[in-house]
Write a structure and sequence with these properties.
This protein has 608 residues and is α+β, with helices and mostly antiparallel strands. The protein is built from 13 helices and 16 strands.
Length: 608
Protein backbone atom coordinates (compact mmCIF):
# COMPACT_ATOMS: atom_id res chain seq x y z
CA UNK A 1 0.00 0.00 0.00
CA UNK A 2 2.90 2.39 0.71
CA UNK A 3 4.00 2.13 -2.91
CA UNK A 4 0.66 3.60 -4.14
CA UNK A 5 0.75 7.43 -4.46
CA UNK A 6 -1.80 9.21 -2.34
CA UNK A 7 -3.57 10.73 -5.32
CA UNK A 8 -4.01 7.28 -6.90
CA UNK A 9 -5.47 5.53 -3.90
CA UNK A 10 -9.02 4.33 -4.35
CA UNK A 11 -10.18 5.96 -1.12
CA UNK A 12 -8.80 9.38 -2.13
CA UNK A 13 -10.21 9.15 -5.64
CA UNK A 14 -13.62 8.10 -4.34
CA UNK A 15 -13.67 10.96 -1.84
CA UNK A 16 -12.59 13.43 -4.52
CA UNK A 17 -15.26 12.17 -6.89
CA UNK A 18 -17.93 12.39 -4.19
CA UNK A 19 -16.94 15.94 -3.25
CA UNK A 20 -16.90 16.95 -6.89
CA UNK A 21 -20.35 15.46 -7.42
CA UNK A 22 -21.66 17.21 -4.32
CA UNK A 23 -20.23 20.57 -5.40
CA UNK A 24 -21.65 20.19 -8.88
CA UNK A 25 -25.01 19.16 -7.44
CA UNK A 26 -25.14 22.16 -5.10
CA UNK A 27 -24.04 24.52 -7.88
CA UNK A 28 -26.53 23.08 -10.35
CA UNK A 29 -29.34 23.27 -7.79
CA UNK A 30 -28.48 26.87 -6.94
CA UNK A 31 -28.25 27.83 -10.60
CA UNK A 32 -31.55 26.12 -11.33
CA UNK A 33 -33.22 27.88 -8.42
CA UNK A 34 -31.89 31.27 -9.51
CA UNK A 35 -32.78 30.66 -13.15
CA UNK A 36 -36.26 29.40 -12.30
CA UNK A 37 -36.91 32.31 -9.94
CA UNK A 38 -35.65 34.85 -12.46
CA UNK A 39 -37.74 33.33 -15.23
CA UNK A 40 -40.80 33.32 -12.99
CA UNK A 41 -40.17 36.95 -12.08
CA UNK A 42 -39.81 37.87 -15.74
CA UNK A 43 -43.00 36.07 -16.64
CA UNK A 44 -44.79 37.72 -13.75
CA UNK A 45 -43.38 41.10 -14.74
CA UNK A 46 -44.44 40.51 -18.36
CA UNK A 47 -47.96 39.66 -17.21
CA UNK A 48 -47.97 42.71 -14.95
CA UNK A 49 -46.82 44.88 -17.86
CA UNK A 50 -49.60 43.50 -20.07
CA UNK A 51 -52.11 44.20 -17.27
CA UNK A 52 -50.76 47.75 -16.95
CA UNK A 53 -51.21 48.37 -20.67
CA UNK A 54 -54.75 46.98 -20.50
CA UNK A 55 -55.50 49.32 -17.58
CA UNK A 56 -54.09 52.28 -19.51
CA UNK A 57 -56.05 51.39 -22.65
CA UNK A 58 -59.29 50.94 -20.66
CA UNK A 59 -58.95 54.26 -18.86
CA UNK A 60 -57.90 56.03 -22.08
CA UNK A 61 -61.08 54.69 -23.66
CA UNK A 62 -63.07 56.02 -20.73
CA UNK A 63 -61.45 59.43 -21.16
CA UNK A 64 -62.14 59.36 -24.91
CA UNK A 65 -65.87 58.82 -24.35
CA UNK A 66 -66.53 61.06 -21.31
CA UNK A 67 -66.06 64.81 -20.86
CA UNK A 68 -64.87 64.38 -17.24
CA UNK A 69 -63.78 61.77 -14.65
CA UNK A 70 -66.88 61.89 -12.53
CA UNK A 71 -67.95 58.27 -12.88
CA UNK A 72 -64.53 56.65 -13.24
CA UNK A 73 -64.38 55.24 -9.69
CA UNK A 74 -66.44 52.18 -10.60
CA UNK A 75 -64.19 51.47 -13.57
CA UNK A 76 -61.04 51.86 -11.42
CA UNK A 77 -62.35 49.45 -8.77
CA UNK A 78 -63.34 46.88 -11.38
CA UNK A 79 -59.91 47.03 -13.04
CA UNK A 80 -58.18 46.77 -9.66
CA UNK A 81 -60.21 43.71 -8.72
CA UNK A 82 -59.47 42.11 -12.09
CA UNK A 83 -55.70 42.73 -12.14
CA UNK A 84 -54.91 42.81 -8.41
CA UNK A 85 -53.09 46.14 -8.85
CA UNK A 86 -53.57 49.39 -7.07
CA UNK A 87 -54.90 52.02 -9.49
CA UNK A 88 -54.94 55.72 -8.75
CA UNK A 89 -55.92 58.66 -11.00
CA UNK A 90 -54.92 62.24 -10.26
CA UNK A 91 -54.83 65.55 -12.06
CA UNK A 92 -51.54 67.01 -13.26
CA UNK A 93 -51.04 68.61 -9.83
CA UNK A 94 -51.80 65.26 -8.11
CA UNK A 95 -55.27 66.08 -6.97
CA UNK A 96 -56.94 62.67 -6.49
CA UNK A 97 -59.65 61.74 -8.96
CA UNK A 98 -60.10 58.04 -8.11
CA UNK A 99 -58.10 55.47 -6.10
CA UNK A 100 -58.62 51.75 -5.51
CA UNK A 101 -56.65 51.95 -2.28
CA UNK A 102 -57.99 53.09 1.07
CA UNK A 103 -58.45 56.80 1.55
CA UNK A 104 -55.30 58.51 2.72
CA UNK A 105 -52.89 55.96 1.21
CA UNK A 106 -49.76 57.57 -0.18
CA UNK A 107 -49.21 57.55 -3.92
CA UNK A 108 -46.29 55.79 -5.59
CA UNK A 109 -43.28 58.07 -6.19
CA UNK A 110 -43.81 58.25 -9.95
CA UNK A 111 -46.74 58.07 -12.33
CA UNK A 112 -46.87 55.01 -14.59
CA UNK A 113 -48.41 56.94 -17.52
CA UNK A 114 -50.27 60.04 -18.59
CA UNK A 115 -53.80 59.60 -19.92
CA UNK A 116 -54.35 61.99 -22.82
CA UNK A 117 -56.38 60.45 -25.67
CA UNK A 118 -55.94 63.58 -27.75
CA UNK A 119 -52.20 62.92 -28.06
CA UNK A 120 -51.73 59.22 -27.20
CA UNK A 121 -53.29 56.31 -29.10
CA UNK A 122 -53.60 53.13 -26.96
CA UNK A 123 -56.36 51.60 -29.11
CA UNK A 124 -54.89 50.97 -32.58
CA UNK A 125 -52.12 48.60 -31.45
CA UNK A 126 -52.64 46.59 -28.26
CA UNK A 127 -49.88 46.99 -25.71
CA UNK A 128 -48.41 50.08 -27.40
CA UNK A 129 -48.65 53.85 -26.93
CA UNK A 130 -48.66 55.54 -30.31
CA UNK A 131 -48.38 59.23 -30.91
CA UNK A 132 -51.61 60.69 -32.25
CA UNK A 133 -55.31 60.94 -31.63
CA UNK A 134 -57.04 57.96 -30.00
CA UNK A 135 -59.63 56.70 -32.54
CA UNK A 136 -62.18 56.31 -29.74
CA UNK A 137 -62.39 60.12 -29.43
CA UNK A 138 -65.46 60.66 -31.59
CA UNK A 139 -67.19 63.75 -30.29
CA UNK A 140 -69.37 65.46 -32.93
CA UNK A 141 -68.42 62.86 -35.53
CA UNK A 142 -70.65 60.19 -33.98
CA UNK A 143 -73.27 59.07 -36.47
CA UNK A 144 -76.95 58.91 -35.74
CA UNK A 145 -78.81 55.62 -35.90
CA UNK A 146 -80.39 56.50 -39.25
CA UNK A 147 -77.02 57.43 -40.71
CA UNK A 148 -75.52 54.17 -39.51
CA UNK A 149 -78.31 52.15 -41.11
CA UNK A 150 -77.86 53.89 -44.45
CA UNK A 151 -74.06 53.52 -44.45
CA UNK A 152 -74.34 49.85 -43.45
CA UNK A 153 -76.50 49.23 -46.51
CA UNK A 154 -73.96 50.99 -48.76
CA UNK A 155 -71.09 49.02 -47.18
CA UNK A 156 -72.80 45.69 -47.77
CA UNK A 157 -73.49 46.62 -51.39
CA UNK A 158 -69.84 47.50 -51.94
CA UNK A 159 -68.78 44.27 -50.18
CA UNK A 160 -70.84 42.23 -52.65
CA UNK A 161 -69.47 44.23 -55.60
CA UNK A 162 -65.86 43.59 -54.54
CA UNK A 163 -66.61 39.92 -53.89
CA UNK A 164 -67.42 39.55 -57.57
CA UNK A 165 -63.89 40.82 -58.29
CA UNK A 166 -62.35 38.23 -55.97
CA UNK A 167 -61.95 40.37 -52.82
CA UNK A 168 -63.30 38.74 -49.65
CA UNK A 169 -63.77 41.68 -47.31
CA UNK A 170 -65.19 42.18 -43.85
CA UNK A 171 -67.31 45.09 -42.66
CA UNK A 172 -65.90 46.58 -39.46
CA UNK A 173 -67.65 49.31 -37.47
CA UNK A 174 -65.51 52.16 -36.14
CA UNK A 175 -66.11 53.93 -32.81
CA UNK A 176 -68.00 56.71 -34.63
CA UNK A 177 -70.39 54.14 -36.09
CA UNK A 178 -69.10 54.35 -39.66
CA UNK A 179 -68.57 50.97 -41.42
CA UNK A 180 -65.29 50.29 -43.28
CA UNK A 181 -64.20 47.38 -45.49
CA UNK A 182 -61.07 45.47 -44.49
CA UNK A 183 -59.20 42.33 -45.52
CA UNK A 184 -58.13 39.67 -43.04
CA UNK A 185 -54.48 40.73 -43.25
CA UNK A 186 -55.05 44.48 -43.47
CA UNK A 187 -57.19 47.10 -45.13
CA UNK A 188 -58.13 47.50 -48.78
CA UNK A 189 -56.63 50.50 -50.47
CA UNK A 190 -58.87 52.82 -52.48
CA UNK A 191 -56.94 51.98 -55.70
CA UNK A 192 -58.50 48.50 -55.67
CA UNK A 193 -62.10 49.68 -55.54
CA UNK A 194 -62.41 50.00 -59.34
CA UNK A 195 -66.02 50.09 -60.57
CA UNK A 196 -67.25 49.54 -57.02
CA UNK A 197 -66.16 53.04 -55.98
CA UNK A 198 -69.52 54.78 -56.47
CA UNK A 199 -68.57 57.67 -54.17
CA UNK A 200 -71.62 57.25 -51.95
CA UNK A 201 -69.98 55.32 -49.08
CA UNK A 202 -67.20 57.91 -48.78
CA UNK A 203 -69.55 60.91 -48.76
CA UNK A 204 -69.74 62.49 -45.30
CA UNK A 205 -73.01 61.95 -43.48
CA UNK A 206 -74.92 65.01 -42.27
CA UNK A 207 -73.43 64.67 -38.76
CA UNK A 208 -69.95 64.37 -40.20
CA UNK A 209 -70.61 67.20 -42.66
CA UNK A 210 -71.51 69.50 -39.81
CA UNK A 211 -68.43 68.49 -37.79
CA UNK A 212 -66.15 68.83 -40.82
CA UNK A 213 -67.49 72.29 -41.56
CA UNK A 214 -66.74 73.28 -37.97
CA UNK A 215 -63.26 71.78 -38.28
CA UNK A 216 -62.59 73.74 -41.47
CA UNK A 217 -63.71 76.94 -39.82
CA UNK A 218 -61.41 76.31 -36.85
CA UNK A 219 -58.43 75.59 -39.13
CA UNK A 220 -58.98 78.50 -41.50
CA UNK A 221 -57.27 81.10 -39.35
CA UNK A 222 -54.18 78.91 -38.84
CA UNK A 223 -53.97 78.19 -42.55
CA UNK A 224 -54.17 81.86 -43.43
CA UNK A 225 -51.49 82.72 -40.86
CA UNK A 226 -49.26 80.02 -42.41
CA UNK A 227 -49.69 81.65 -45.81
CA UNK A 228 -51.92 78.89 -47.13
CA UNK A 229 -55.23 79.50 -48.79
CA UNK A 230 -57.88 76.97 -47.88
CA UNK A 231 -60.41 75.63 -50.37
CA UNK A 232 -64.03 76.67 -49.71
CA UNK A 233 -64.86 72.97 -49.20
CA UNK A 234 -61.75 71.50 -47.62
CA UNK A 235 -63.19 68.07 -46.66
CA UNK A 236 -65.32 66.44 -49.34
CA UNK A 237 -64.84 62.71 -48.52
CA UNK A 238 -63.98 60.39 -45.63
CA UNK A 239 -61.73 57.28 -45.71
CA UNK A 240 -63.78 54.09 -46.17
CA UNK A 241 -60.77 51.68 -46.26
CA UNK A 242 -59.37 52.30 -42.80
CA UNK A 243 -55.87 53.29 -43.99
CA UNK A 244 -54.34 50.44 -42.03
CA UNK A 245 -56.25 51.18 -38.84
CA UNK A 246 -59.53 50.00 -37.41
CA UNK A 247 -60.72 53.61 -37.21
CA UNK A 248 -60.79 55.64 -40.47
CA UNK A 249 -58.84 58.82 -40.72
CA UNK A 250 -60.69 61.73 -42.18
CA UNK A 251 -59.41 62.21 -45.73
CA UNK A 252 -58.93 65.69 -47.13
CA UNK A 253 -58.51 67.20 -50.53
CA UNK A 254 -56.40 70.16 -49.78
CA UNK A 255 -56.31 72.39 -52.81
CA UNK A 256 -52.92 73.70 -51.87
CA UNK A 257 -50.51 74.39 -54.62
CA UNK A 258 -47.53 74.35 -52.30
CA UNK A 259 -45.76 71.17 -51.12
CA UNK A 260 -43.12 70.22 -48.54
CA UNK A 261 -43.07 72.48 -45.50
CA UNK A 262 -46.31 74.36 -46.37
CA UNK A 263 -48.07 71.01 -46.74
CA UNK A 264 -46.86 69.86 -43.31
CA UNK A 265 -47.93 73.19 -41.84
CA UNK A 266 -51.43 72.68 -43.23
CA UNK A 267 -51.64 69.22 -41.67
CA UNK A 268 -50.47 70.65 -38.34
CA UNK A 269 -53.12 73.33 -38.50
CA UNK A 270 -55.83 70.75 -39.15
CA UNK A 271 -54.61 68.49 -36.31
CA UNK A 272 -54.54 71.36 -33.84
CA UNK A 273 -57.99 72.43 -34.93
CA UNK A 274 -59.31 68.88 -34.51
CA UNK A 275 -57.89 68.58 -31.00
CA UNK A 276 -59.53 71.89 -30.09
CA UNK A 277 -62.79 70.68 -31.62
CA UNK A 278 -62.73 67.36 -29.66
CA UNK A 279 -61.40 68.75 -26.38
CA UNK A 280 -64.85 69.45 -24.85
CA UNK A 281 -65.81 65.78 -25.42
CA UNK A 282 -62.70 64.32 -23.70
CA UNK A 283 -61.87 64.06 -20.00
CA UNK A 284 -59.01 66.28 -18.83
CA UNK A 285 -55.44 64.99 -18.83
CA UNK A 286 -54.80 62.70 -15.83
CA UNK A 287 -51.85 60.91 -14.23
CA UNK A 288 -52.07 57.14 -13.74
CA UNK A 289 -50.37 55.52 -10.75
CA UNK A 290 -50.05 51.73 -10.58
CA UNK A 291 -48.88 49.47 -7.78
CA UNK A 292 -45.68 50.47 -6.07
CA UNK A 293 -44.29 52.61 -8.79
CA UNK A 294 -42.53 52.03 -12.10
CA UNK A 295 -43.62 48.59 -13.38
CA UNK A 296 -41.31 48.77 -16.32
CA UNK A 297 -38.18 48.12 -14.30
CA UNK A 298 -36.41 44.88 -15.17
CA UNK A 299 -36.87 42.20 -12.52
CA UNK A 300 -33.87 41.39 -10.41
CA UNK A 301 -33.30 38.67 -7.87
CA UNK A 302 -31.12 39.84 -5.03
CA UNK A 303 -30.22 37.35 -2.31
CA UNK A 304 -30.25 38.76 1.19
CA UNK A 305 -27.34 38.08 3.58
CA UNK A 306 -29.59 35.75 5.60
CA UNK A 307 -30.47 33.74 2.51
CA UNK A 308 -26.83 33.66 1.48
CA UNK A 309 -25.96 32.29 4.90
CA UNK A 310 -28.67 29.64 4.58
CA UNK A 311 -27.43 28.57 1.16
CA UNK A 312 -23.83 28.45 2.37
CA UNK A 313 -24.83 26.50 5.48
CA UNK A 314 -26.89 24.04 3.47
CA UNK A 315 -24.06 23.57 0.99
CA UNK A 316 -21.65 22.99 3.87
CA UNK A 317 -23.94 20.40 5.46
CA UNK A 318 -24.35 18.64 2.10
CA UNK A 319 -20.59 18.59 1.57
CA UNK A 320 -19.96 17.31 5.11
CA UNK A 321 -22.54 14.55 4.75
CA UNK A 322 -21.15 13.64 1.35
CA UNK A 323 -17.60 13.40 2.68
CA UNK A 324 -18.73 11.38 5.72
CA UNK A 325 -20.83 8.94 3.71
CA UNK A 326 -18.13 8.66 1.05
CA UNK A 327 -15.50 7.95 3.72
CA UNK A 328 -17.61 5.19 5.25
CA UNK A 329 -18.45 3.66 1.88
CA UNK A 330 -14.90 3.98 0.62
CA UNK A 331 -13.50 2.36 3.75
CA UNK A 332 -15.87 -0.58 3.35
CA UNK A 333 -14.87 -0.85 -0.30
CA UNK A 334 -11.14 -0.58 0.32
CA UNK A 335 -10.99 -3.02 3.27
CA UNK A 336 -11.55 -6.20 1.23
CA UNK A 337 -9.26 -4.87 -1.50
CA UNK A 338 -6.49 -4.40 1.06
CA UNK A 339 -7.10 -7.93 2.34
CA UNK A 340 -6.83 -9.22 -1.23
CA UNK A 341 -3.61 -7.28 -1.74
CA UNK A 342 -2.06 -8.65 1.47
CA UNK A 343 -3.12 -12.20 0.59
CA UNK A 344 -1.70 -11.91 -2.91
CA UNK A 345 1.65 -10.72 -1.47
CA UNK A 346 2.03 -13.83 0.73
CA UNK A 347 4.44 -16.62 -0.34
CA UNK A 348 2.87 -18.85 -3.02
CA UNK A 349 3.22 -22.00 -0.96
CA UNK A 350 0.90 -20.69 1.75
CA UNK A 351 -2.20 -20.48 -0.49
CA UNK A 352 -3.82 -17.82 1.70
CA UNK A 353 -7.61 -17.29 1.54
CA UNK A 354 -9.48 -14.06 2.28
CA UNK A 355 -12.77 -13.77 4.21
CA UNK A 356 -15.86 -13.06 2.09
CA UNK A 357 -17.86 -10.42 4.01
CA UNK A 358 -20.08 -8.96 1.28
CA UNK A 359 -22.10 -10.12 -1.71
CA UNK A 360 -21.21 -7.20 -3.98
CA UNK A 361 -18.45 -6.93 -6.58
CA UNK A 362 -15.69 -7.07 -3.95
CA UNK A 363 -17.27 -10.16 -2.39
CA UNK A 364 -17.43 -11.82 -5.80
CA UNK A 365 -13.80 -10.84 -6.36
CA UNK A 366 -12.84 -12.36 -2.99
CA UNK A 367 -14.64 -15.60 -3.89
CA UNK A 368 -12.86 -15.69 -7.24
CA UNK A 369 -9.54 -15.12 -5.46
CA UNK A 370 -10.25 -17.97 -3.04
CA UNK A 371 -11.23 -20.25 -5.92
CA UNK A 372 -8.02 -19.32 -7.70
CA UNK A 373 -5.98 -20.06 -4.57
CA UNK A 374 -7.74 -23.40 -4.16
CA UNK A 375 -7.15 -24.34 -7.79
CA UNK A 376 -3.53 -23.31 -7.50
CA UNK A 377 -3.13 -25.41 -4.36
CA UNK A 378 -4.79 -28.36 -6.05
CA UNK A 379 -2.62 -27.96 -9.14
CA UNK A 380 0.46 -27.76 -6.96
CA UNK A 381 -0.59 -30.94 -5.21
CA UNK A 382 -1.21 -32.59 -8.55
CA UNK A 383 2.14 -31.37 -9.85
CA UNK A 384 3.95 -32.89 -6.88
CA UNK A 385 1.98 -36.11 -7.24
CA UNK A 386 2.71 -36.16 -10.97
CA UNK A 387 6.44 -35.76 -10.41
CA UNK A 388 6.33 -38.53 -7.81
CA UNK A 389 4.23 -40.81 -10.01
CA UNK A 390 6.38 -40.20 -13.09
CA UNK A 391 9.51 -40.94 -11.08
CA UNK A 392 7.91 -44.10 -9.72
CA UNK A 393 6.67 -45.20 -13.12
CA UNK A 394 10.10 -44.79 -14.65
CA UNK A 395 12.06 -46.14 -11.69
CA UNK A 396 10.46 -49.61 -11.64
CA UNK A 397 11.29 -50.68 -15.24
CA UNK A 398 14.65 -48.93 -15.11
CA UNK A 399 15.52 -50.69 -11.84
CA UNK A 400 14.59 -54.06 -13.31
CA UNK A 401 16.60 -53.43 -16.48
CA UNK A 402 19.62 -52.21 -14.51
CA UNK A 403 19.52 -55.12 -12.08
CA UNK A 404 19.37 -57.77 -14.79
CA UNK A 405 22.10 -56.05 -16.80
CA UNK A 406 24.35 -55.88 -13.75
CA UNK A 407 23.96 -59.57 -12.83
CA UNK A 408 24.47 -60.52 -16.48
CA UNK A 409 27.62 -58.38 -16.63
CA UNK A 410 28.94 -60.04 -13.49
CA UNK A 411 28.34 -63.45 -15.10
CA UNK A 412 25.82 -64.55 -12.55
CA UNK A 413 23.09 -65.09 -15.14
CA UNK A 414 23.35 -66.19 -18.73
CA UNK A 415 21.69 -63.85 -21.30
CA UNK A 416 19.27 -66.49 -22.50
CA UNK A 417 16.14 -65.70 -24.60
CA UNK A 418 13.91 -65.65 -21.51
CA UNK A 419 16.03 -62.93 -19.91
CA UNK A 420 16.16 -60.88 -23.07
CA UNK A 421 12.39 -61.19 -23.40
CA UNK A 422 11.93 -59.93 -19.83
CA UNK A 423 14.27 -56.97 -20.51
CA UNK A 424 12.35 -56.20 -23.71
CA UNK A 425 9.05 -56.26 -21.81
CA UNK A 426 10.43 -53.78 -19.29
CA UNK A 427 11.62 -51.55 -22.13
CA UNK A 428 8.14 -51.63 -23.65
CA UNK A 429 6.59 -50.57 -20.34
CA UNK A 430 9.10 -47.71 -20.14
CA UNK A 431 8.41 -46.71 -23.75
CA UNK A 432 4.64 -46.78 -23.16
CA UNK A 433 4.93 -44.44 -20.16
CA UNK A 434 7.18 -42.04 -22.07
CA UNK A 435 4.84 -42.00 -25.10
CA UNK A 436 1.83 -41.36 -22.89
CA UNK A 437 3.60 -38.49 -21.13
CA UNK A 438 4.64 -37.02 -24.47
CA UNK A 439 1.05 -37.12 -25.75
CA UNK A 440 -0.24 -35.47 -22.59
CA UNK A 441 2.43 -32.78 -22.73
CA UNK A 442 1.59 -32.03 -26.36
CA UNK A 443 -2.13 -31.84 -25.53
CA UNK A 444 -1.49 -29.55 -22.56
CA UNK A 445 0.71 -27.28 -24.67
CA UNK A 446 -1.83 -27.20 -27.51
CA UNK A 447 0.71 -28.61 -29.97
CA UNK A 448 -1.00 -31.94 -30.48
CA UNK A 449 -1.40 -32.19 -34.23
CA UNK A 450 -4.54 -33.72 -35.71
CA UNK A 451 -4.91 -34.89 -39.30
CA UNK A 452 -8.64 -34.61 -39.80
CA UNK A 453 -10.56 -36.43 -42.48
CA UNK A 454 -14.08 -37.83 -42.90
CA UNK A 455 -14.29 -41.00 -40.82
CA UNK A 456 -17.25 -43.42 -40.84
CA UNK A 457 -18.01 -44.43 -37.27
CA UNK A 458 -18.76 -48.08 -38.13
CA UNK A 459 -15.37 -48.55 -39.81
CA UNK A 460 -13.63 -46.88 -36.86
CA UNK A 461 -15.28 -49.25 -34.37
CA UNK A 462 -14.54 -52.28 -36.54
CA UNK A 463 -10.82 -51.38 -36.71
CA UNK A 464 -10.58 -50.91 -32.93
CA UNK A 465 -12.39 -54.20 -32.30
CA UNK A 466 -10.12 -56.05 -34.71
CA UNK A 467 -7.01 -54.64 -33.02
CA UNK A 468 -8.10 -55.85 -29.57
CA UNK A 469 -9.84 -59.07 -30.58
CA UNK A 470 -6.93 -61.31 -29.64
CA UNK A 471 -6.48 -59.71 -26.19
CA UNK A 472 -10.21 -59.97 -25.52
CA UNK A 473 -10.35 -63.60 -26.59
CA UNK A 474 -7.36 -64.39 -24.41
CA UNK A 475 -9.14 -62.79 -21.42
CA UNK A 476 -12.35 -64.68 -22.21
CA UNK A 477 -14.26 -61.44 -22.95
CA UNK A 478 -16.63 -61.03 -25.89
CA UNK A 479 -15.91 -57.88 -27.94
CA UNK A 480 -18.84 -56.52 -29.95
CA UNK A 481 -19.75 -53.44 -32.03
CA UNK A 482 -23.13 -51.75 -32.55
CA UNK A 483 -23.83 -48.82 -34.87
CA UNK A 484 -27.14 -46.99 -35.32
CA UNK A 485 -27.26 -45.61 -38.85
CA UNK A 486 -24.12 -44.40 -40.62
CA UNK A 487 -22.74 -41.48 -38.59
CA UNK A 488 -19.62 -39.70 -39.89
CA UNK A 489 -16.92 -37.87 -38.00
CA UNK A 490 -14.48 -35.16 -39.04
CA UNK A 491 -11.56 -36.46 -37.02
CA UNK A 492 -8.04 -37.88 -36.93
CA UNK A 493 -8.69 -41.66 -37.24
CA UNK A 494 -5.33 -42.58 -35.67
CA UNK A 495 -5.95 -40.48 -32.54
CA UNK A 496 -9.53 -41.71 -32.20
CA UNK A 497 -8.39 -45.33 -32.49
CA UNK A 498 -5.85 -44.55 -29.76
CA UNK A 499 -8.55 -43.09 -27.47
CA UNK A 500 -11.00 -45.92 -28.11
CA UNK A 501 -8.19 -48.44 -27.76
CA UNK A 502 -7.35 -47.12 -24.28
CA UNK A 503 -11.02 -47.45 -23.27
CA UNK A 504 -11.25 -51.01 -24.69
CA UNK A 505 -8.01 -52.01 -22.97
CA UNK A 506 -9.34 -50.77 -19.60
CA UNK A 507 -12.72 -52.43 -20.19
CA UNK A 508 -11.16 -55.80 -21.05
CA UNK A 509 -8.80 -55.57 -18.07
CA UNK A 510 -11.70 -54.93 -15.62
CA UNK A 511 -14.19 -57.40 -17.12
CA UNK A 512 -14.11 -60.97 -15.77
CA UNK A 513 -14.11 -63.96 -18.15
CA UNK A 514 -17.48 -64.48 -19.75
CA UNK A 515 -18.23 -60.77 -19.76
CA UNK A 516 -18.88 -58.49 -22.71
CA UNK A 517 -17.36 -55.24 -24.02
CA UNK A 518 -19.55 -53.36 -26.53
CA UNK A 519 -18.42 -50.50 -28.79
CA UNK A 520 -21.34 -48.33 -29.97
CA UNK A 521 -21.91 -45.34 -32.22
CA UNK A 522 -25.01 -43.21 -32.89
CA UNK A 523 -25.98 -39.74 -34.03
CA UNK A 524 -27.36 -37.18 -31.59
CA UNK A 525 -28.18 -33.93 -33.39
CA UNK A 526 -24.94 -32.20 -34.35
CA UNK A 527 -22.87 -34.78 -32.44
CA UNK A 528 -21.77 -38.38 -32.79
CA UNK A 529 -21.83 -40.39 -29.56
CA UNK A 530 -19.21 -43.14 -29.20
CA UNK A 531 -19.58 -45.52 -26.25
CA UNK A 532 -17.50 -48.31 -24.71
CA UNK A 533 -19.64 -50.37 -22.29
CA UNK A 534 -18.50 -53.34 -20.25
CA UNK A 535 -20.03 -55.80 -17.80
CA UNK A 536 -17.09 -55.63 -15.43
CA UNK A 537 -16.68 -54.81 -11.78
CA UNK A 538 -17.64 -51.16 -12.14
CA UNK A 539 -16.32 -48.08 -10.35
CA UNK A 540 -17.38 -46.85 -6.93
CA UNK A 541 -19.34 -43.57 -6.82
CA UNK A 542 -16.65 -41.79 -4.80
CA UNK A 543 -13.98 -42.80 -7.31
CA UNK A 544 -15.93 -41.90 -10.45
CA UNK A 545 -15.01 -38.15 -10.50
CA UNK A 546 -11.27 -39.08 -10.51
CA UNK A 547 -11.16 -41.61 -13.32
CA UNK A 548 -9.70 -39.07 -15.76
CA UNK A 549 -7.00 -37.86 -13.33
CA UNK A 550 -3.41 -38.71 -14.19
CA UNK A 551 -1.80 -41.72 -12.47
CA UNK A 552 -5.04 -42.44 -10.62
CA UNK A 553 -6.13 -46.06 -9.99
CA UNK A 554 -9.27 -47.24 -8.27
CA UNK A 555 -7.31 -50.23 -6.89
CA UNK A 556 -4.11 -48.92 -5.35
CA UNK A 557 -2.71 -52.43 -5.00
CA UNK A 558 -2.52 -52.94 -8.76
CA UNK A 559 0.96 -52.83 -10.25
CA UNK A 560 1.96 -50.74 -13.26
CA UNK A 561 2.13 -53.91 -15.31
CA UNK A 562 -1.32 -55.27 -14.39
CA UNK A 563 -3.09 -51.95 -13.77
CA UNK A 564 -1.67 -49.79 -16.55
CA UNK A 565 0.32 -46.59 -16.28
CA UNK A 566 -2.56 -44.50 -15.00
CA UNK A 567 -2.37 -42.22 -18.09
CA UNK A 568 -4.76 -43.99 -20.45
CA UNK A 569 -7.96 -42.23 -19.43
CA UNK A 570 -6.36 -38.74 -19.16
CA UNK A 571 -5.10 -39.25 -22.73
CA UNK A 572 -8.65 -40.18 -23.80
CA UNK A 573 -10.00 -36.95 -22.34
CA UNK A 574 -7.25 -34.82 -23.93
CA UNK A 575 -7.66 -36.39 -27.36
CA UNK A 576 -11.44 -35.93 -27.19
CA UNK A 577 -11.07 -32.29 -26.15
CA UNK A 578 -8.60 -31.72 -29.00
CA UNK A 579 -11.38 -32.82 -31.39
CA UNK A 580 -13.84 -30.36 -29.76
CA UNK A 581 -15.71 -33.03 -27.83
CA UNK A 582 -16.25 -34.22 -24.29
CA UNK A 583 -15.54 -37.44 -22.37
CA UNK A 584 -17.85 -38.77 -19.66
CA UNK A 585 -17.98 -41.85 -17.43
CA UNK A 586 -20.88 -43.62 -15.75
CA UNK A 587 -20.74 -46.78 -13.69
CA UNK A 588 -22.69 -49.06 -11.37
CA UNK A 589 -20.49 -51.21 -9.09
CA UNK A 590 -20.95 -54.89 -9.85
CA UNK A 591 -22.77 -54.22 -13.13
CA UNK A 592 -20.28 -52.43 -15.35
CA UNK A 593 -19.17 -49.08 -16.70
CA UNK A 594 -19.98 -46.93 -19.74
CA UNK A 595 -17.50 -44.42 -21.15
CA UNK A 596 -19.06 -41.89 -23.58
CA UNK A 597 -17.28 -39.68 -26.11
CA UNK A 598 -19.31 -36.88 -27.71
CA UNK A 599 -17.70 -35.55 -30.89
CA UNK A 600 -18.84 -33.10 -33.58
CA UNK A 601 -20.58 -34.82 -36.47
CA UNK A 602 -19.63 -34.36 -40.11
CA UNK A 603 -21.58 -34.68 -43.34
CA UNK A 604 -21.05 -37.84 -45.34
CA UNK A 605 -18.80 -37.18 -48.38
CA UNK A 606 -20.57 -37.02 -51.72
CA UNK A 607 -20.31 -40.16 -53.81
CA UNK A 608 -18.41 -39.93 -57.09
Amino acid sequence: MNRIPLRKRLLVRLLFASVLIAVCSVAATAWLAVATTTRALREEQGQALADDMDILAELSGYAAGHPDWTGVRATVRALSAKTGRRIALTTADRTPLADSAAEGASLPPRAAATIDPLRTDTYTERGAQLSGLDPRVVGPYRLTEAERTELDSLARARQKCLARDGYELTVVRTPSGRPVLTEDDGTLGSEYLGDCADGRLGTPAPSEEKALAELQERARGCLVRAGLEAHPRLFSTVDVTGSGKLVPQIASKLTLAAAGTPQRAAVACIEDARRAQLDPYVAPVAELFLGGGDSGAAPRWNMSPANKAKVAGTAGVVLALTVAVSAVVATRLVRPLRALTEAAQQPPDRHVRVPVTTRDETGILAEAFNDLAERRERLETQRKALVSDVAHELRSPLTNIRGWLEVTRDGLVEPDPALLGALHEEALVLQRVIDDLRDLAAADAGTLRLHREPVPADDLLAQVAAAHRVAADTAGVALRTRTDGTPWLDADPLRLRQALGNLVTNAVRHTPPGGTVTLGARSDGAEVVLTVADTGTGIAAEDLPHVFDRFWRAEKSRSRRTGGSGLGLPIVRQLTAAHGGTAEAASTPGTGSVFTLRLPAAAAPAED
